[in-house]
Structures are given as C-alpha cells and as structure tokens.
Specification:
Blueprint (H helix, E strand, L loop, with lengths): L3 E5 L5 H11 L4 E4 L9 H4 L9 E4 L2 E4 L1 H11 L12 H25 L14 H14 L10 H15 L7 H11 L2 H17 L1
Parallel strand pairs: 1-2
Antiparallel strand pairs: 1-3, 3-4
Helix pairs in contact: 1-3, 1-8, 3-6, 4-6, 6-7
This protein binds glutathione (GSH).
Keywords: Transferase
Organism: Marilutibacter spongiae
Pfam families: GST_C_2, GST_N
C-alpha cells in the first residue's frame, strides 16, 4: 500500500496539484502549511528546499513544481488516462504544452507583473503577446492540446489561463474563457476548488 501526501496552502498553486490528485482517483492525505512559518521550517525545507508549495510525496519520492507533479502522477497512475502513451506522437504535444505553461507562459506573465522589459530575442518566452497569440491559436483549433482526450497538459494550461484571467493578469479572450471553463467544470476540478475554499473559509 503506497502513501501519497500533498503539501499545500488553500490559497496557492497547490489547487492545481490537488486537481491532478483528484483526477487520479487515488486516496491521499493533505498537510497544510503556512506562508512564512511552517513553509520555511526545517521539516518542510527537507522536503522542498525552496520552502514553496505545492509538493507531493509518494512513498519516498518527493516531487515539486506543478508541471512535474502533474506529469509524475499521470505516469504513476496510468489507469486514469491522463497522459498519451509514452513514445506516441501525442506525447510530443503533451510535453510541449505542459512545458510551455511552466516555462514561457509563467515567465512571460511574471515578467509583465514585475515590470521587466526583456529583449524578446533572448528571453525564452519572446514576448507575452506572442505567448498568448500562440495559445489562442492552439485552443481555438482543438478541444484538447494533446490528442483527442483530456490530459494533464490541459489541466495545467486551463488552470493557469483561468487563474491569470481571474486575477486580471492577462486579458480575457473568448477562446481562453471557453477552454478554461470547459475543463474547470470537470468533477475533479470542482472537488479540488471546493476543498481549498472550505479550508480557507474555516481559517478566516
Ligand atoms: N514553480 C512552483 C511555484 C511554487 C510557488 O511559487 N508557490 C507559492 C504559492 S502559489 C509559494 O509557495 N510561495 C511561498 C514562498 O515563496 O514563500 C510550482 O510550479 O509549483
């Protein structure tokens, strides 16, 4: 019997890792941490030296970074069908867009928030405009970004686009709204958000 633990905070990117855990159908326990205190305590720094959430521990394996957590869980629990088969052509699309969210999309958004003006030729994300145009064309032309079914790449992309639009970090675009809403309505996503909302309300 394996053990699976989510380390998180109700108001954090951890809701993405929780959504993914819910999609796998596995049982898991949650350890909630507090910003600036338990998140930076030696016990947690031994799990994630960055002192950030989310992280998961699966038996003795620790995984941090939302995209890595999603990819790891999809492979660890293949029966949930959250990743195209290894070696398939769809797997190429899957890796491409999963990494695009964790890399260019997040970096471009944070650069904008931080007021950084970077030379598009040397910045890995080019420009936020190009990143968003690329994603707009992608989600306007297909229902899922890898093959013909939902995968962890859709989970990541829809969660981050939804989140950025919700907080006004990027403009709402019809294609983004339709794509994010479609996947946010999945039962696992609804459960994940409800769990974090309950926890946040209980603390307030
Ligand atoms: N690259 C990480 C980002 C994790 C992250 O920045 N988490 C924030 C919460 S959303 C955090 O833990 N901040 C606490 C801190 O830095 O002290 C991922 O993708 O999971």
């Amino acid at each position: 019997m394996s053990t699976l633990t989510l380390y998180t905070h109700p108001e954090s990117r951890g809701v993405v890792a929780r959504w993914m855990l819910e999609e796998t159908g596995q049982s898991y326990r949650t350890e909630y941490l507090e910003y600036g205190t338990t998140m930076k305590a030696p016990e947690y720094l031994a799990i994630n030296p960055m002192g950030k959430v989310p992280a998961i521990r699966h038996d003795t394996t620790v995984v941090t970074e939302n995209a890595a957590i999603c990819a790891y869980l999809a492979d660890a629990f293949p029966a949930a069908g959250l990743a195209p088969p290894s070696g398939s052509r769809e797997r190429g699309d899957y890796y491409r867009w999963l990494f695009f969210v964790a890399g260019p999309l997040e970096a471009a958004v944070l650069a904008k928030l931080g007021g950084a003006t970077l030379e598009p030729r040397s910045a890995g994300f080019g420009s936020l405009e190009d990143v968003l145009a690329t994603l707009d064309a992608l989600v306007s032309s297909r229902e899922f970004v890898a093959g013909d079914r939902f995968s962890a790449a859709d989970l990541m992309l829809s969660a981050y686009l939804g989140w950025y639009m919700q907080f006004g970090v990027i403009d709402k675009r019809p294609a983004f709204e339709a794509y994010a809403a479609r996947h946010a309505g999945r039962e696992a996503a609804v459960r994940a958000r409800a769990t974090e909302a309950e926890r946040a309300a209980a603390k307030a």
